[in-house]
Amino acid sequence: MEDREMTIPRALVRRPSPRLPEGLVTHIDRSPVDLDLAVRQWEGYAAALQDAGWTTVEVEPAEDCPDSVFVEDTVVVYGSVAVLANPGAPERRPEVAGTAEVLEEHGYTLVEIEAPGTLDGGDVLKHGGTVWVGVGGRTDVEGASQLRAHLEPLGADVRTVPQTRVLHLKSAVTALPDGTVVGHEPLVQDPSVWGERFLAVPEESGAHVVLLGGDRVLMAADAPRSARRFRERGLEVVEVDISEFEKLEGCVTCLSVRLRSLPG
Ligand SMILES: CN(C)C(=N)NCCC[C@H](N)C(=O)O
User: Fold this and answer.
1) What is the 8-class DSSP label of residue 202?
2) Residue 110 — φ and ψ, nearest 5°?
3) How does pLDDT run across 190-217, given as a tens digit for each residue?
4) Tens-place pLDDT, residues 22-39
5) How far apart are the C-alpha atoms of 23 and 11, rounded to whole Å?
6) Whole-model pTM above 0.80?
7) Is 251 a catalytic residue?
8) 176: which residues sit within 8 A by CB, 6+ positions away?
9) What ipTM is given for this predicted complex?
Protein backbone atom coordinates (compact mmCIF):
# COMPACT_ATOMS: atom_id res chain seq x y z
CA MET A 1 0.00 0.00 0.00
CA GLU A 2 1.51 3.36 -0.99
CA ASP A 3 1.78 6.17 1.57
CA ARG A 4 -0.40 8.39 -0.61
CA GLU A 5 -3.17 5.78 -0.51
CA MET A 6 -2.83 5.45 3.26
CA THR A 7 -3.67 9.10 3.73
CA ILE A 8 -6.69 9.61 1.46
CA PRO A 9 -9.40 10.56 3.95
CA ARG A 10 -12.64 8.92 2.88
CA ALA A 11 -15.87 8.29 4.68
CA LEU A 12 -18.67 5.84 4.02
CA VAL A 13 -22.16 7.29 4.03
CA ARG A 14 -25.51 5.79 3.04
CA ARG A 15 -28.44 7.71 1.62
CA PRO A 16 -31.60 7.51 3.79
CA SER A 17 -34.16 4.87 2.92
CA PRO A 18 -37.67 6.09 1.96
CA ARG A 19 -38.72 4.02 4.99
CA LEU A 20 -36.53 6.06 7.38
CA PRO A 21 -39.56 7.27 9.42
CA GLU A 22 -40.16 3.62 10.43
CA GLY A 23 -36.69 3.39 12.02
CA LEU A 24 -36.28 1.85 15.44
CA VAL A 25 -36.70 3.77 18.67
CA THR A 26 -35.80 2.15 21.98
CA HIS A 27 -35.07 4.71 24.70
CA ILE A 28 -37.20 7.64 23.53
CA ASP A 29 -40.80 8.18 22.42
CA ARG A 30 -41.48 8.04 18.71
CA SER A 31 -42.09 11.35 16.97
CA PRO A 32 -42.83 11.87 13.27
CA VAL A 33 -39.82 12.11 10.98
CA ASP A 34 -39.96 14.50 8.01
CA LEU A 35 -38.33 12.46 5.23
CA ASP A 36 -37.66 15.38 2.88
CA LEU A 37 -36.02 17.34 5.67
CA ALA A 38 -34.01 14.26 6.66
CA VAL A 39 -32.68 13.92 3.11
CA ARG A 40 -31.66 17.59 3.08
CA GLN A 41 -29.99 17.18 6.48
CA TRP A 42 -28.16 14.09 5.23
CA GLU A 43 -26.93 16.04 2.21
CA GLY A 44 -25.78 18.81 4.54
CA TYR A 45 -23.94 16.27 6.67
CA ALA A 46 -22.18 14.77 3.63
CA ALA A 47 -21.31 18.27 2.40
CA ALA A 48 -19.78 19.11 5.79
CA LEU A 49 -17.52 16.05 5.52
CA GLN A 50 -16.57 17.03 1.97
CA ASP A 51 -15.89 20.65 2.96
CA ALA A 52 -13.51 19.31 5.60
CA GLY A 53 -11.57 17.41 2.93
CA TRP A 54 -13.22 13.99 3.12
CA THR A 55 -14.21 12.12 0.00
CA THR A 56 -17.56 10.49 0.68
CA VAL A 57 -18.10 6.95 -0.60
CA GLU A 58 -21.76 5.97 -0.84
CA VAL A 59 -22.82 2.50 0.21
CA GLU A 60 -25.60 1.29 -2.11
CA PRO A 61 -28.87 2.53 -0.55
CA ALA A 62 -30.91 -0.15 1.24
CA GLU A 63 -34.45 1.00 0.49
CA ASP A 64 -36.13 -1.69 2.59
CA CYS A 65 -34.02 -1.03 5.67
CA PRO A 66 -35.39 1.98 7.57
CA ASP A 67 -32.26 2.44 9.70
CA SER A 68 -29.69 1.93 6.94
CA VAL A 69 -28.59 5.59 6.97
CA PHE A 70 -26.92 4.78 10.33
CA VAL A 71 -24.08 3.10 8.47
CA GLU A 72 -21.72 3.26 11.46
CA ASP A 73 -23.51 0.32 13.03
CA THR A 74 -22.65 -2.12 10.25
CA VAL A 75 -18.89 -2.28 10.67
CA VAL A 76 -15.83 -1.52 12.77
CA VAL A 77 -12.83 -0.53 10.68
CA TYR A 78 -9.36 -0.89 12.18
CA GLY A 79 -6.47 -0.18 9.83
CA SER A 80 -7.11 -2.25 6.73
CA VAL A 81 -9.38 -4.74 8.51
CA ALA A 82 -13.16 -4.33 8.49
CA VAL A 83 -15.01 -6.24 11.19
CA LEU A 84 -18.55 -6.68 9.89
CA ALA A 85 -21.12 -6.26 12.63
CA ASN A 86 -23.90 -8.62 13.58
CA PRO A 87 -26.41 -5.98 14.69
CA GLY A 88 -28.23 -6.61 17.94
CA ALA A 89 -31.55 -5.66 16.30
CA PRO A 90 -32.33 -8.52 13.87
CA GLU A 91 -34.16 -6.17 11.48
CA ARG A 92 -30.89 -4.31 10.89
CA ARG A 93 -28.83 -7.37 9.87
CA PRO A 94 -29.60 -7.08 6.13
CA GLU A 95 -27.79 -3.72 6.15
CA VAL A 96 -24.38 -5.32 6.58
CA ALA A 97 -24.05 -6.84 3.10
CA GLY A 98 -23.95 -3.47 1.32
CA THR A 99 -21.18 -2.20 3.58
CA ALA A 100 -19.24 -5.43 3.10
CA GLU A 101 -19.49 -5.08 -0.66
CA VAL A 102 -18.05 -1.58 -0.83
CA LEU A 103 -15.26 -2.33 1.64
CA GLU A 104 -14.29 -5.47 -0.23
CA GLU A 105 -14.17 -3.50 -3.49
CA HIS A 106 -11.79 -1.09 -1.79
CA GLY A 107 -9.42 -3.81 -0.67
CA TYR A 108 -10.28 -4.24 2.99
CA THR A 109 -9.76 -7.58 4.70
CA LEU A 110 -13.23 -8.58 5.88
CA VAL A 111 -13.87 -10.55 9.06
CA GLU A 112 -17.17 -10.83 10.88
CA ILE A 113 -18.93 -11.01 14.20
CA GLU A 114 -20.77 -14.30 14.10
CA ALA A 115 -24.03 -15.33 15.76
CA PRO A 116 -24.81 -15.88 18.53
CA GLY A 117 -22.58 -12.86 19.22
CA THR A 118 -24.02 -9.43 18.46
CA LEU A 119 -22.22 -6.16 17.98
CA ASP A 120 -23.21 -2.75 16.60
CA GLY A 121 -20.53 -0.35 15.35
CA GLY A 122 -22.13 2.41 17.45
CA ASP A 123 -20.98 0.56 20.56
CA VAL A 124 -17.33 0.81 19.60
CA LEU A 125 -15.28 3.89 20.45
CA LYS A 126 -11.72 3.95 19.15
CA HIS A 127 -9.00 6.40 20.06
CA GLY A 128 -5.33 5.83 19.50
CA GLY A 129 -4.84 2.13 20.02
CA THR A 130 -7.62 1.82 22.57
CA VAL A 131 -10.99 0.37 21.64
CA TRP A 132 -13.83 0.63 24.17
CA VAL A 133 -16.82 -1.63 23.57
CA GLY A 134 -20.16 -0.91 25.25
CA VAL A 135 -21.80 -4.13 26.38
CA GLY A 136 -25.35 -4.60 27.62
CA GLY A 137 -27.49 -3.11 24.86
CA ARG A 138 -27.17 -4.09 21.19
CA THR A 139 -23.71 -5.56 21.79
CA ASP A 140 -23.29 -8.62 23.98
CA VAL A 141 -20.32 -10.19 25.76
CA GLU A 142 -19.83 -12.72 22.97
CA GLY A 143 -19.81 -10.01 20.27
CA ALA A 144 -17.28 -7.98 22.27
CA SER A 145 -15.02 -10.97 22.76
CA GLN A 146 -15.09 -11.75 19.03
CA LEU A 147 -14.12 -8.14 18.34
CA ARG A 148 -11.24 -8.49 20.80
CA ALA A 149 -10.09 -11.65 19.03
CA HIS A 150 -10.06 -9.78 15.70
CA LEU A 151 -8.39 -6.58 16.90
CA GLU A 152 -5.90 -7.58 19.60
CA PRO A 153 -3.58 -9.32 17.10
CA LEU A 154 -3.48 -5.95 15.30
CA GLY A 155 -2.21 -4.28 18.47
CA ALA A 156 -5.48 -2.81 19.78
CA ASP A 157 -6.18 -2.64 23.50
CA VAL A 158 -9.86 -3.70 23.62
CA ARG A 159 -11.76 -2.85 26.82
CA THR A 160 -15.40 -3.55 27.61
CA VAL A 161 -17.59 -0.92 29.27
CA PRO A 162 -21.07 -1.42 30.76
CA GLN A 163 -23.66 0.35 28.61
CA THR A 164 -27.43 0.24 29.09
CA ARG A 165 -28.66 3.81 29.67
CA VAL A 166 -28.69 4.82 26.03
CA LEU A 167 -28.80 3.03 22.69
CA HIS A 168 -25.07 2.78 22.02
CA LEU A 169 -21.80 3.57 23.74
CA LYS A 170 -21.34 6.46 21.30
CA SER A 171 -24.77 7.80 22.26
CA ALA A 172 -23.12 8.40 25.65
CA VAL A 173 -19.48 9.26 24.95
CA THR A 174 -17.07 10.08 22.14
CA ALA A 175 -13.48 11.30 22.11
CA LEU A 176 -12.01 14.70 21.23
CA PRO A 177 -8.84 14.82 19.10
CA ASP A 178 -6.61 14.84 22.21
CA GLY A 179 -8.29 11.74 23.64
CA THR A 180 -10.52 13.56 26.14
CA VAL A 181 -13.70 11.50 26.43
CA VAL A 182 -16.80 13.71 26.44
CA GLY A 183 -20.14 12.66 27.86
CA HIS A 184 -23.37 14.06 29.25
CA GLU A 185 -23.15 12.67 32.77
CA PRO A 186 -26.75 11.51 33.34
CA LEU A 187 -26.32 9.20 30.33
CA VAL A 188 -22.88 7.84 31.13
CA GLN A 189 -23.01 4.62 33.10
CA ASP A 190 -19.58 4.83 34.69
CA PRO A 191 -17.49 7.94 33.98
CA SER A 192 -14.72 6.52 36.20
CA VAL A 193 -13.84 4.17 33.33
CA TRP A 194 -12.15 7.15 31.73
CA GLY A 195 -10.78 8.67 34.94
CA GLU A 196 -9.10 12.03 34.44
CA ARG A 197 -9.65 12.03 30.71
CA PHE A 198 -13.47 12.31 31.15
CA LEU A 199 -15.03 15.72 30.47
CA ALA A 200 -18.70 16.33 31.29
CA VAL A 201 -20.66 18.35 28.73
CA PRO A 202 -23.93 20.17 29.42
CA GLU A 203 -26.03 18.77 26.58
CA GLU A 204 -26.77 15.25 25.37
CA SER A 205 -25.69 16.02 21.79
CA GLY A 206 -22.55 17.67 23.11
CA ALA A 207 -21.29 14.16 23.78
CA HIS A 208 -21.25 13.31 20.07
CA VAL A 209 -18.33 14.43 17.94
CA VAL A 210 -16.89 13.21 14.66
CA LEU A 211 -13.19 13.94 14.30
CA LEU A 212 -12.59 15.69 10.99
CA GLY A 213 -8.81 15.82 11.30
CA GLY A 214 -6.49 18.17 13.16
CA ASP A 215 -8.43 20.25 15.66
CA ARG A 216 -11.68 20.12 13.69
CA VAL A 217 -14.77 18.34 14.99
CA LEU A 218 -18.27 17.88 13.58
CA MET A 219 -21.23 17.96 15.94
CA ALA A 220 -24.98 18.51 16.00
CA ALA A 221 -26.29 22.07 16.01
CA ASP A 222 -28.45 21.55 19.11
CA ALA A 223 -25.63 21.63 21.66
CA PRO A 224 -24.43 25.26 21.56
CA ARG A 225 -23.07 25.32 25.11
CA SER A 226 -20.95 22.23 24.54
CA ALA A 227 -19.79 23.67 21.20
CA ARG A 228 -18.69 26.84 23.02
CA ARG A 229 -16.67 24.77 25.50
CA PHE A 230 -14.96 22.95 22.68
CA ARG A 231 -14.10 26.23 20.96
CA GLU A 232 -12.68 27.51 24.26
CA ARG A 233 -10.42 24.45 24.22
CA GLY A 234 -9.10 25.55 20.82
CA LEU A 235 -11.18 23.27 18.62
CA GLU A 236 -12.75 24.32 15.34
CA VAL A 237 -16.37 23.19 15.51
CA VAL A 238 -18.55 22.50 12.47
CA GLU A 239 -22.25 22.23 13.33
CA VAL A 240 -24.93 20.42 11.34
CA ASP A 241 -28.67 20.12 11.93
CA ILE A 242 -29.58 16.42 12.24
CA SER A 243 -32.89 16.77 14.09
CA GLU A 244 -34.69 14.13 12.00
CA PHE A 245 -32.04 11.51 12.77
CA GLU A 246 -32.07 12.38 16.47
CA LYS A 247 -35.78 11.46 16.51
CA LEU A 248 -34.57 7.92 15.76
CA GLU A 249 -31.81 7.98 18.37
CA GLY A 250 -29.18 8.80 15.77
CA CYS A 251 -26.31 11.22 16.24
CA VAL A 252 -23.49 12.61 14.10
CA THR A 253 -21.26 9.57 14.52
CA CYS A 254 -23.86 7.11 13.22
CA LEU A 255 -24.09 8.68 9.77
CA SER A 256 -20.58 7.83 8.56
CA VAL A 257 -17.63 5.50 8.89
CA ARG A 258 -14.29 7.21 8.45
CA LEU A 259 -11.72 5.29 6.42
CA ARG A 260 -8.36 6.84 7.11
CA SER A 261 -6.35 4.08 5.51
CA LEU A 262 -8.60 2.99 2.68
CA PRO A 263 -6.37 1.22 0.18
CA GLY A 264 -6.86 2.10 -3.49
C1 LIG B 1 -24.15 6.02 18.05
N2 LIG B 1 -25.44 5.67 17.52
C3 LIG B 1 -26.51 6.22 18.22
C4 LIG B 1 -25.53 4.83 16.40
N5 LIG B 1 -24.48 4.41 15.94
N6 LIG B 1 -26.66 4.43 15.82
C7 LIG B 1 -27.98 4.90 15.92
C8 LIG B 1 -28.98 3.93 15.35
C9 LIG B 1 -30.39 4.36 15.51
C10 LIG B 1 -31.39 3.38 15.00
N11 LIG B 1 -32.71 3.96 15.03
C12 LIG B 1 -31.41 2.11 15.81
O13 LIG B 1 -32.18 2.02 16.76
O14 LIG B 1 -30.67 1.19 15.51
Assistant:
1) S
2) -95, 130
3) 999 999 999 999 999 999 999 999 999 9
4) 999 999 999 999 999 999
5) 23
6) yes
7) no
8) 182, 199, 209, 211, 217, 230, 233, 235
9) 0.99
